[in-house]
Amino acid sequence: MADKIRVLLVDDDEDDYIITKDIMHDITGRNYILDWTSSFNEALELIRQMKHDVYLVDFRLGAHDGLELIAQAVAEGYTAPFILLTGQSDRETDEKAMRVGAMDYLVKGTFTPFDLERSIRYSLEHAKSLTEIQKLNEELEARVQERTRELGEAIRKLEHSNKSLKAAQREIQKALSKEKELHELKSRFVTIASHEFRTPLSTVLSSASLIGKYKSAEDDDKRLKHVDRIKSAVSNLTSILNDFLSISRMEEGKIYNVPTTFDLVTFAEEVTDELQGFLKDGQQIRYRHIGDQVTVNLDKQLLKNILFNLLSNSSKYSGEDKTISFTTEITEEIINITVQDEGIGIPKADQGHLFSPFFRAQNVTNIQGTGLGLNIVKRYVEIMGGTISYQSELGEGTTFTITFPKTV
C-alpha cells in the first residue's frame, strides 16, 4: 500500500469536514488520513508540530480568514503545501492565494475526488521542488564558506613566506570579494527563481484544473480564458529561463561577437513586426531611420536580443495607447540606435543601479520580472564593442541610446 498522506482540514464548518472526508474516501489508489480543526489558533499550533503533509484551508475562519493563516505559516518558514478552499472561483481570489504562498485553490461544492487528488499530488510535487532548490542553495553556501576558509588559510601562510605580501594580499582579497559576490548572486538567483517560477507554475496548475470543469459549448469563453493564461505563463517561464541561460553562458565566456554585414533598416522593420503581438492595446512602435546609408557590420543575433529586450520593456512599463519611438542612425563614424517610451520612468535614486544583476526599481515591484534584462543588454552591447546610455524622468518615460563604432 502507498505511504499514508496526512492531511489537515482547517474549516469552521463540521459539515464541510464530513463532505471532504467522503470525497477523500472515494479517491482510489491513495491512502489519506484526514484530521480536522475549526480553530485558527489550534491550526497554527498543529502546523508548527509539522505532523501533516498537506493543509486544506477554508477561506472563511470566523474572525480570521485562510489567507491570514497561510501567510503567517509561510512567514514562519513552514514548507508543507497549502491549498485554499473557497466558495467562489475568480481570478482575484486565485492571485491572492498564490501571493500569500498557497500552492493551489479549490472551489467548495464543485471539486471531485479526481480534482482533490490531483491538487494534493501536484502541490506535494511543487513543494518538493522548492525544497530541493533551498537544499541546493544551502550546499552552495557551504561550498563558498569552505572556499573562504581555504583562502583565509592561504593568507596566513603567505604572511610568513611571501616577500610580495601586499600584492599577494590584494589578489587574495580580490578573490575573496569575487567569491562573496558569487555567493550573493547565487543566493539571489535561488530566491528570485523560486519566487518567479511559483507564480506562473501556480497559474498553469490552477487554470489546467479549472479547464476540466468546463465541458459544455457555453463554457468556451471560460476555457479560452484559461488557455490564454496558461500560454502567457509558459511564455513568461520561457523568458525567465532564457535570461538565466544568457547569464550562465556569459559567466562561462560562451557568448562571442560574430559580426555580419546586413541591411539595418530591413532588420529593424522585421524586429518591429515580430513585436506587434507583445504590445498592449493601442500601443504602437514608430520606427524611422536617419541617413542614406543602411548597411552595417554587427552581430545580428546579439543585436536582435538587445532590441527585443529594450522594446518589450518599453511596452511592459508603458500604459495602453502609448507610443514607442525606435530610431536608427548611421553616420560616418558611428551607428546610433535609440528606443524611447512614454512609460513610468525610473526614480532618480534607482538609476545608479539600473544595470546591476537582479536589480528592480522601486516603482516596478508589482510588475513581473527578474531584474536581469538590462544587465544582459549592457553586457551584450559591451561584447559587441558598443556603449549604452539612458535618460529617464519619473512619469514621463525613458530613452535608451546604444552606440557602436562603424566598421564598414
Automatic annotation (TrEMBL):
Broad enzyme group: transferase
Residue ranges annotated for the Response regulatory domain, each copy included: 6-123
Keywords recorded for this protein, A-Z: ATP-binding, Coiled coil, Kinase, Nucleotide-binding, Phosphoprotein, Transferase, Two-component regulatory system
Pfam families: HATPase_c, HisKA, Response_reg
Limits of the Histidine kinase domain: 192-408
Organism superkingdom: Bacteria
Sequence positions bearing 4-aspartylphosphate: D58
Coiled coil: 130-188
UniProt catalytic activity: ATP + protein L-histidine = ADP + protein N-phospho-L-histidine
Residues annotated as transmembrane: none
Its EC number(s): 2.7.13.3
A GO MF term: ATP binding
Protein name stated in the entry: histidine kinase
Species lineage: Bacteria, Pseudomonadati, Bacteroidota, Cytophagia, Cytophagales
